[in-house]
Structure formats: C-alpha cells, structure tokens
Amino acid sequence: MKTAFVNCTLLDGTENMAPQAGMAVVVEDGKIALVEKAAASYEGCEVVDLGGRYLMPGLINLHLHLASTGAPKKKETDAAKLASFLMGNPVTRALARSVCEKAAKTELLSGVTTIRTVGGLDGVDSAIRDRVKTGKTVGPRMLVADLAVTVPGGHMAGSVAAVAQTEEECRALVRRIAQGKPDLIKLMITGGVLDAKVKGEPGVLRMPPELVRAACEEAHRLGYPVAAHVESPEGVRVALENGVDTIEHGAALDEALVELFQQRGAAHVCTISPAVPLAMMDPQVVGSTELTQYNGNVVFEGIVSCAKTALAHGIPVGLGTDAGCPFTTHYDMWRELQYFHKYVGVSRAFALHTATLKNAEILGIAQKTGSVEAGKSADLLVTDGDPLADLTCLRAPYMVVMAGRVFAQPRVKKYPLVEQELDKFL
C-alpha cells in the first residue's frame, strides 16, 4: 500500500529549513518513497489531503524515564521501595511494563516518533522496545539504557539505577545490563536537585573518576555509547576525562571543559523542562522547598549556560525532556523546544531542527530518520499551524505517522494543573 500525503507545507528538518507549500510526500512500506511538488493525481495510492497543513519529521526525545508520568503528587514517594515492589513478582512486573508502555505511546501520540530512555526499571524498557519492533504494542522507535549505573547514595540509587561500589563491580554491572541488549549505558555521576543536601550543590560528585572510567571502558568494549547524568562543572570534567559520550543536563563550561568536549567528540543533551518547575514555579504548587528551588535555579542556569557555550563552540547540542520528573510529562516535548528558543536564544527553526535531524545525528540514526527525505522512515508530524511562527502549534498534533502508520488527530490524557502552571513560562 502506498500513501500520498498531498497539499502539505513541508518543513524538512534541515538546519536552514523554510516552508515549502504545495508539496507531496509518498510513503511505501513504511518509508518515504518520494518528496515532490504535488502532482494532479496519485494512482495506486491512498491519498491524504492535508489542506495546506505543516508536515515535518517526527520529534526525537533524547532523555526520558518511562517509569514515571510527571503528574503532580500530593506527597513524595519512596522510589526505591516502589521499584523493588514492582520488580518483585511477575504480576507487578507486568503492571510496571503496562505503565511504561502507556508512557511510550503517549510520547508517540504527542508527536515524538523516537525516544531514548536513560534509566528505567530492570529490563522493562528493552522488553517494550522489542514488543514495539514485533508489533505487539504501539510505540515510537526506542533506544534504551535499561537500568543506569550509580553508587551508594548516588542519584536514583535503587529505583532506575543499580549500585556499584568498586571498579570491578562497575564492569560487572555494565555486563549485566548488557545482557538485555540495550542501546546505551547510563551513568549517574553527580547528584541532582531532589537529592541535594546542601544549598548550591545540586551536582555534587558522587561517582569517583576511576569508577566512571571502568564503566566507560567496559561499555565501549561491548560496543555501547555512554550517557551520564551530570549537573556540575566538576562532574562534566570527570565524565569527559573518563570516556562519557553525552553529557545529560550539563553545567557552565569554561575553556578547559570546552576543549574536553571537543577532544572527546562528545555532545550535550539539553534538558530545560525539569528545571523550570523546580526553579520557577510556586513551591507550594510543585511541592518543593527553599533548598529545592534554590538548587533548581542553579541547575537551570547551568543547563542554559552549557547549551549556549556548546553551540558557540560547535559542540553538538540535542534536546530531551527528562520526562517523569515533577511536572514534566510524556506529552510535552514541544515545551523543550519552546524553552530552547526562549532561554538559549535559538530560532524556532533551529529548535525544530535540533529536535529532529540533530537529535538523530547525535543518536547515530540520521540515515534512518530525523528529516523528510526519500529512503528514510516515514516518521512524520502534521500540525495545523506553522511552528516556525509559533512552537505551541506542536502541542496538539493534527496527525502523527510512525513508520507509515497513521494516527489521525491523536489525543492523550493531560493534567490540567500542569498545563495551567507551565503555560505561565511560555
């Protein structure tokens, strides 16, 4: 079956994209077969007339956690205890997988056709990835880390990260995670906002350099790239000096850190979305303390500064939401583009390019997806309005296409309080 999407305004995902009116995209066997000025007819095709709407590549979310929704909570839960319960028997494991599958489908129906998970419940993410591939469930393309690697008292210890105390334990844990055939290895090198104990120190170094090196060496030996949670300049230095490939979140960079980035050929994954509620929202609404809000602002400024400096020096910068954090949902990837535009100061076109083709390049899958080109997977997003004029057009897709499968006028469950509060920062 061939499908011709006609009468569309094309945004192709390239850096210098400009709207191309009156275009057609022909899809066959899940791939883009033809991109051209619309012809008078397309015999042998199912024709979908988009009425001039905007057609672009599906978004790519480089940083998220499927095990949490980001929904407002009345009180904080013990994440490690909950993870232990969910992984305790086949019935609760099936429940956990169901929750995570729903999160992945929410990403897809909100316009995200590729996701990269960076810390999840033991083996659940890779199981869902494989179910999507075999058609047993609906979801986006998935690259997964499964469990992350942390240290005693480290970020997310016991929940979406397992603990290692020595170099050999790090190597052994990487090998254990690799048995599930993930797509990358994730390290939790520094602390974060929610586990910080001291004002001004949200990114205190938790994982010693020798453990970072051991984990990276083992991951690279097995053929896996390494991503790392880092929220301080010291963490960036330790990560890059010892083999990390992508710095998640980031911190302010000096000349030495810029040079390390360039020497490693590393990328920065910008995640402004989780920092906005912690740094800017009313603490009573988000459930934060003075300490949390202060440290949230430190991280917010560090992430924005890191992205600005990286872009100024030609270091690749990608986008992810860190969905699952407080007030950071699986349907709000569009907000990350808006924050990137507003706070980092890039154009809307560059934000859209970053969330599509640049993210695909960082993942090493630009030959498969990330732009609207013949030969690539038909991973598409259609909106009523022009996102180059207003990125909020992305918040309610008219249509999502995943490898040729059409989801017309998709709808997802949204949290009114999240919408109400976050819209204040657009």
In words, what does this structure look like?
- This protein is of the alpha/beta class and 426 residues long.
- The chain has two domains: 2-57 and 368-425, Urease, subunit C, domain 1, CATH 2.30.40; 59-363, TIM Barrel.
- Helix content is 35%, strand content 21%.
- The chain is built from 13 helices and 18 strands.
- The chain has helices spanning 79-86, 90-109, 124-133, 167-178, 209-221, 233-241, 255-264, 275-280, 283-286, 290-312, 333-344, 348-363, 416-422; strands at 2-10, 20-28, 31-37, 45-49, 54-57, 59-64, 112-117, 141-144, 148-150, 161-163, 185-188, 226-230, 246-249, 267-270, 317-319, 380-383, 399-402, 405-408.
- The two termini are 41 Å apart.
- The model has no long low-confidence stretch (mean pLDDT 96).
- It comes from Anaerofilum hominis.
- Residues 54-405 form the Amidohydrolase-related domain.
- This is Amidohydrolase family protein.
- One of its GO terms (molecular function) is hydrolase activity, acting on carbon-nitrogen (but not peptide) bonds.
User: Which sheet architecture does the biggest sheet show?
Assistant: 8 strands, mixed
Radius of gyration: 21 Å
- Total number of strands: 18
Number of domains: 2
Mean pLDDT across residues: 96
Please tell me what the overall shape is.
Answer: globular
CATH class of the largest domain: Alpha Beta
Strand residues, percent: 15-25%
Instruction: Provide the CATH architecture of the largest domain.
Output: Alpha-Beta Barrel
Which parts are unreliable, with pLDDT below 50 for 5 consecutive residues or more? Answer: none
Oligomer: single chain
CATH topology of the largest domain: TIM Barrel
**In which range does the helix fraction lie?**
25-40%
* Coarse structural class: alpha/beta
CATH superfamily assignment of the largest domain? Metal-dependent hydrolases
- Kindly report how far apart the N and C termini lie: 41 Å
Structure annotation, total helices: 13
